[in-house]
Structures are given as C-alpha cells and as structure tokens.
Write a structure and sequence with these properties.
single chain; alpha/beta; 7-stranded mixed sheet; 7 strands
C-alpha cells in the first residue's frame, strides 16, 4: 500500500489533483481512497489532501500519519523538522519551487523531486492553478504510474483549458529534477 499526502493552498487545485491522481491509479488497475481537509474555505488557505492506493481493496478508514510520498504545492508549507517526524528515511518529497536542492536545507535522507510548477503553469496560461503540472512531475517521480493513465484522468476530469492542462502536465513530467538520497 502506498500513502500520499498533498499540501497546498486553496486555489492551486490540490483537491482536484488528488482526485485526478486517484482516477489515474484506478485506470492503472489499483484501488484508490482519497479525502481532503480544509482550513477556512477561501483562496490561499492551507489545504491537505490524502490518497491511499493499493493493488487490493482498501479497508482502512483511518488518517494517513506517515505517508510514503509528500507533494508540496507551496514550498512555504514545508517544515523540515515536522517532516522528519512524519516521513521515514527514503520517503519521496516533491516540491513546487524554482529553487535548487542546495537552497532547501534539512531534507537529508529523502528522495527529492523539484519542479517549478508555478512557472510552468504561468507559461502555458494556467496562472496559479498548478495541479496538472504537479501531476506530470509526480508521474515521473513515482515511476510506477504510467503517464498515459494520468493523461486520460486529466482529459476526463478537467472541465476547461484542457489543452493548456495537458501541456502543463507534459512539461511537469519533462522538467522534474530528481535527487536520490545519499547512501
């Protein structure tokens, strides 16, 4: 079983990203279970979404406390000390940032993926909505989920600007930088 936690802010598409990712895993033959938690329901408020996937039906009905992978749509939500208490060594962390690995201290021992999703989304005309860019990056970061399933989920679930979202997804996939933990 894989457990994934997505952190972001209202308006970035975090909830929709978890639902599209769940759909993509479902299309890949896996069982997804996702739910979200909101602070104040307003643009810019912190949003957390959870996704659990497995090859077998999921019977768990509890919170995800120690995710295998964390996706940060907004780097300002990243707390390296807190992260060490919830994520085990070797966990995967994908961060939306224009910064380099060296500019992000305190993430030793984690598999790290960096993508400038905000820059890509703005470049293709999506503005601050970065969910499809992050999904493209996650697909390559995960390397267990075929890109074709993510593309099909986006095509089915995105109601507007479909071509722009597919372009963002493709660029997210191509431009992700991955840093493996040192042994």
């Amino acid at each position: 079983m894989k457990e994934i936690k997505l952190h972001g802010r209202g308006g970035q598409g975090v909830v929709m990203a978890s639902q599209m990712l769940g759909m993509a895993f479902f299309k890949a033959g896996m069982y997804p279970q996702c739910y979200s938690l909101f602070g104040g329901e307003r643009r810019g408020a912190p949003v957390v979404s959870f996704l659990r996937v497995d090859r077998d039906p999921i019977l768990l009905k509890c919170d995800i406390k120690n995710p295998d992978e964390l996706l940060y749509f907004d780097q300002s939500l990243l707390d390296a000390e807190d992260l060490s208490s919830v994520a085990g060594s070797g966990s995967g962390i994908l961060i939306n940032t224009p910064r380099t690995e060296a500019a992000i201290p305190g993430l030793v021992g984690f598999r790290l993926g960096l993508i400038d999703a905000t820059g890509i989304a703005e470049e293709v005309g999506l503005g601050h909505v970065i969910n499809t860019t992050v999904l493209g990056a996650y697909c390559r970061f995960n390397d267990e989920l075929p890109l074709e399933h993510v593309i099909r989920a986006v095509e089915e679930m995105v109601p507007a600007k479909r071509e722009m979202n597919l372009a963002a997804l493709e660029q997210g996939y191509e431009k992700l930088e991955i840093f493996e933990p040192e042994a």
